[in-house]
């Protein structure tokens, strides 16, 4: 794959229009590439490129599956793309050409719902009936090395700690499940929350796990205390929070069916701004490797690309308002900050 420039920025209204409803979105671990899967079974590889201030989004390739795509994730090494589709398949695609490198035709007995590359060899998948499987991609025969049946509804999302010892996954049955990857045995399953859990991230230097839910709140767990939550955070969304993306250790982006992408500061919990607005529900988020661009896709068949500067939002943490304003040199940034500070005061 051709390497892109080290830094790419986008216009505020930069978007990519899709002919079909997008379902999943992922960002490349090393460059400015995005993969998007749609309900018609298509998978696209997109690139953001910048040349003398001319910014473009190019489609490198498009491939089609026989059924709706349910999940697409770049491999940890960035050399391939994993895809699960409604026709039960788990496949690996080459990034240069989009051609299939390997495909397990029947990965689950029920339609897969989620996908997560744990490391260079292990992959986790979940299906509509709550079954989670761990795959070892080094094995040609019987690559499924573990199976977990703790959940009774769809497995919605996965996340793993930095040490790659604990895998967490959320479910439509409103539970969080923890699995020990060394023994391939379950550790604990939480009590049922108020509603389905849809996405999760690890934040605050690995001390907290945040799960999005169908009622717009975040269910917060302490690490290693999976039985019940320690806190609930109101995101301000008016509908379910479909996806989460950690932009900084304490800055969280959330996507909702209310059509907005909101930025929330964690501990103290504080709404900061609406970063993007779609014409209808937002279903997926993905951030570039440098956290400078946040992409969102939704029911309006659009992928929106938004510039994001974590340092600008960190200024809001300072206690002295005059000191904060002196440190913002860009007049447009200052005007934007003052506007959103007024919004924050109104919400408080």
Automatic annotation (TrEMBL):
InterPro entries: WD40/YVTN_repeat-like_dom_sf, WD40_repeat_dom_sf, WD40_rpt, WDR55/POC1. The keyword Cytoplasm does not apply. Gene3D superfamilies: YVTN repeat-like/Quinoprotein amine dehydrogenase. It comes from the Eukaryota. Keywords: Repeat, WD repeat. The keyword Oxidoreductase does not apply. PANTHER family: WD REPEAT-CONTAINING PROTEIN 55 (PTHR44019). Belongs to the WD repeat WDR55 family. This is WD repeat-containing protein 55 homolog. It comes from Trichinella pseudospiralis (Parasitic roundworm).
